[in-house]
Write a structure and sequence with these properties.
Blueprint (H helix, E strand, L loop, with lengths): L3 H11 L6 E8 L9 H4 L4 H6 L10 H16 L3 H15 L14 H6 L2 E3 L2 E2 L8 E8 L2 H4 L8 E8 L19 H14 L8 E3 L5 H10 L8 H4 L18 H4 L6 H12 L11 E6 L5 E7 L24 E5 L5 E4 L4 E5 L11 E2 L13 E8 L2 E6 L6 E3 L2 E2 L6 E3 L4 E4 L2 E7 L3
Length: 433
């Protein structure tokens, strides 16, 4: 969910399966069938069979599973219950101003948090989200289609999803170290690599907070602080609007509603639009994560899919007309135009001594080596009326308008798009037919 849904929609678009998709989540997990009550209902599921390894030891609910990780983390890092309270109090401050929040108008103090009952030590009542009835949806489409919509869209600049080594569903207790979750590290690398942005660029974050310790682990994995320093980062209102990193401005799952993180995606869009109930001063880049403890995911939402250096190229020159070339390349650094003709698929790269394979378009004369272009970097081909760019497993990646594309998966491009091979920029020019 969360980052995984946009990821699948994006792949559907690149393969031509779909252009516009509605992603939704809706349930009555408060008034209806609650999570972790399958035992009393006598329902035999694969999930329950998995739990049979843990139930005899009192590990009955997600709170007890997370408590195992939290206990070890607190032992290793010196984190305390008051540090966890900082997370709970910050989300509640945001929920107080959100009319849609479960805890709208109900503030929380550190002392109230510390006085609440244990759920599974070291987790108290307000360290845990509440089961909720609710639903939300997103419309995910292309940037081109979104331009004429009435409401401003949020551009998905980077996506990631991952499962870590020795991972189970919420119960990965057999790893050598359970003080952090390596799958979050993997998602962070994917999201930052694809977006071309880093933690210093994030203006606000929506971090999956079914339980307060989740937020500390994510702050560390996504590079906002060093390993073990999440407890220090969250102090002094750092997660509140006006703090170091405004976080979960809707109230999060702890205080707005537990809709499996999908409500966090919606809040990310509101932040980009400037319509959040708790709007930070800056809102250009928003990080959204989901699924901590299970195969996890994340997305990087921005106001634009262009890097600052590419904004001046947003309006391409008129389509050109070479007699035999459907596609031509504009070398940004020199202004040279290279017409592509004669082949359905053309490879781009550079030549080096002893290389058995030579690309169709040799970018060596344009200092491609210094720009990080691989020997066989990418290919361009025509499929009916589409022009497709494919990264051929290059060392430094290929970007289209600043967004990194997945290797070996064709990505459609249009007239005026900017390709970046490593750091080498090329503009796509299409013949006027």
């Amino acid at each position: 969910m969360n980052g995984r849904s946009p990821a699948r929609r994006w792949r559907a678009h690149t393969t031509g399966v779909a252009e516009t998709v509605v992603v939704y989540r809706a349930f009555n997990e408060r008034s209806g069938r609650r999570y972790s009550t399958g035992i009393s209902e006598g329902i035999v599921t694969a999930d329950l069979i998995h739990w049979s390894w843990y139930l005899p030891f009192g590990l009955l609910t997600p709170a007890s599973w997370v408590a195992m990780f939290a206990q070890r983390y607190m032992h290793e890092t010196g984190c305390t219950g008051r540090d966890l309270a900082q997370v709970a109090v910050s989300t509640r401050k945001h929920a107080v101003h959100n009319p849609n929040a479960f805890f709208h108008g109900v503030p929380l103090t550190i002392e109230e948090h510390q006085a609440s009952r244990w759920i599974a030590e070291p987790l108290r009542l307000f360290d845990c989200c509440q089961e909720s009835d609710g639903g939300c949806a997103q419309v995910v489409t292309t940037v081109e289609r979104a331009r004429d919509l009435r409401a401003k869209g949020a551009v998905v600049r980077g996506i990631g999803q991952a499962a870590g080594a020795d991972q189970e569903n919420m119960t990965s207790f057999y790893r050598p170290d359970i003080t952090f979750l390596p799958e979050i590290d993997l998602v962070a690398k994917q999201v930052y690599a694809m977006s071309g942005l880093g933690p210093a660029d994030v203006d606000a974050a929506i971090l999956y907070d079914a339980f307060t310790p989740n937020v500390l682990w994510q702050l560390e994995s996504f590079g906002f602080c060093a390993r073990g320093e999440g407890k220090d980062f969250v102090k002094d209102g750092a997660l509140e609007v006006g703090g170091r990193l405004p976080c979960n401005t809707h109230g999060g799952q702890l205080s707005e509603a537990y809709i499996h993180g999908m409500n966090g995606v919606n809040e990310g869009v509101r932040l980009i639009r400037g319509t959040s109930c708790n709007q930070p001063a800056r809102n250009d880049h928003v990080l959204v994560t989901a699924g901590v403890g299970v195969p996890t995911s994340g997305i990087y939402q921005t106001t634009s899919n262009l890097r600052p250096s590419e904004v001046s190229l947003k309006e391409p020159p008129p389509p050109i007309s070479f007699p035999d070339a459907l596609v031509s390349l504009n070398i940004i650094s020199t202004g040279d135009i290279l017409p592509l003709a004669g082949q359905e698929e053309i490879t781009l790269g550079r030549v080096s001594e002893g290389q058995p394979m030579v690309p169709d378009i040799d970018l060596t004369p344009y200092k491609a080596y210094e720009a990080g272009v691989s020997r066989m970097h990418a290919s361009i081909r025509m499929v009916e009326d589409q022009v497709l760019i494919t990264d051929l497993g290059s060392a430094n990646g290929t970007r289209v308008n600043g967004m990194q594309i997945t290797p070996h998966i064709p990505y459609p491009v249009k007239h005026g798009d900017i390709l970046t091979l490593g750091k080498f920029k090329i503009q796509i020019l299409l013949r006027n037919r």
